[in-house]
Amino acid sequence: MADPTPTLHQLLVESAHRLPDQTAVVDPERNKHISYADFDALTTQIQEHLRDAGVVSGDRVGVYVPKSIGSISAIFGILKADAAYIPVDPTAPASRNAFIFQDCTVRCFIVDSTLLDGIQAEFDDTYTLEASRLEFADSYGIELSMVKVTLNNGDVQNPPVENLAYILYTSGSTGKPKGVMHTHESGLSFVNWCAETVGFSEKDTFSSHAPFHFDLSILDIYVPIKHGSTLVLIGESLGKQPARLAPVIAEHEITVWYSTPSILRLLVEYGELDNHDYSQVRVVFFAGEVFPIKHLRALKEKWPHPRYLNLYGPTETNVCTYYELPSEIPDSQVDPFPIGPVCENDKALVLNGDSTAVEKGEEGELLITGGSVMHGYWNLPERSAEAYFVDDEGVKWYRTGDVVKESPEDGFIFVGRRDRMVKRRGYRVELGEIEAALYRHPDVKEAAVIAIPHEEKGILVKAFLSIAEGGSKSLIAMKKFCSENLPLYMVPDNFSFQPALPKTSTDKINYQALKTID
Amino acid sequence: MADVNGLDQAQITEITEPVKEFILETFLPGEDPSALEYDTPLISGGIIDSISTLKLVTYLEEEFDIKVQANEMNADNLDTLSEITTFVISKQ
After folding, report:
1. What DSSP string describes A11-54?
2. Which of A49, A134, A491, B59 is deepest in the core (most CB within 10 A)?
3. ipTM (interface pTM)
4. Is residue A51 located within the same domain as residue A145?
């Protein structure tokens, strides 16, 4: 019997029915690939093993597996078992991943067998773990184990969330990660919007660059599977090595690329893009951070043909605004491009500090409601309630924490993070604006600015820069450059020159780590 | 280095060099000393802010035994090493 409500895994079932022999997933590092028919069958086997282990509708099941045919099969197997998957960073400490699995009370988790001992050691004797090998998946270059988790003092499983598809844990301000819950409806709302807006077919080959615990992966996984396209998995280490990664894009004839701007910049700089033919790339999505215009320009010089789309949205909303770049970047363009209009499946609202709507064109916080917005944070009812603004008609709007202003032609312009606005000498300073100015310096490769409390000055604004080879590392020259491009109250107090800026596991600049650098 | 208001080179160096050293050490740690030139704009160039200007004035008062009025602590008098030197000499 067909599923009464549409689901994410139904996309696979339908594509497997339509295109059984088409290659669904390629793992270039392990030199493996799988057809749609085999992929569908493999995920059904995983579903059956989960059911045998007692997984029932509404359960959560963890995925602690490096990117591979094994990990993506685990995801679809879990969804087919009517459970929600919780992907964790395979390179993160086992203790963090165990915290996440315990936090969302997983019934089971699927783990790369080489990581099994490490995570089992993180569960104390209040749990009983029963591990079993999933040998049927061995031929895809990775050994999977399934671990059933039982609480010894009786079942205190949290109540199920209806139609929950996945929980992505993001770093929380309290230091403990918090779980963003998405249902099949919110995932599909985004996937279908993306399909309708951009247009794909089974002839496309998609990159899967983002790790599965990162929200960019939702496009990577489900949009190609919906279309019967081929998905090329780019694992954790290959993804960070531009000289190895660039030939993979050419060799596998990837037509749709999606990553953070940081990775695209690395590809331009170290990928030796002149050595291969990339004319097959037809769509480049980027998201996750601001793309400094000079790096974008350098990329467009190497890859002039594709459509470029800037996707914007916190994990909580999926993608909620988008902007397609003009085919030529005007010479006069120095500021990053807008984040664009709200996606057709969502609605946007811009509010000022006292929760009243701003005049069009004025700055305010962006709020989003609609199909793609999360269900809430796992097991954090208060945090979930705080995350929304409820209007007079009872509509819940997610507060993005991002300050925007609406332009008449281009939708929204990103101004900065609400929590990255500081008051300095009485002026409101947006740290991102200082970064944008620093990126205009021809020698600056990377720029990040933080504000820290300071006894004497109130706050100290510190800029961290990585400088192109042979570039000047003069504080005076940098301060002078800033004073020529910014009001004096925005000139950073300190500059720190680094060989490269620290990155998070999702390749964004790691601001927490910067705070620990003197 | 050009003469300032007809003062001789030695007099100028006596003031300029320690001031330069103080600015480099206090506000520009790690900077190449040759990057701080005689006419580098310090206040208008964003190199020293208002709190740093106060620190500079405290230093000038102690080091050269002069008294600086509140209304003199600004970019008109203290924006470059050259101006600082002239200012200090005029106060001595």
Report:
1. HHHHHHHH-TTSEEEEETTTTEEEEHHHHHHHHHHHHHHHHHTT
2. A491
3. 0.72
4. yes
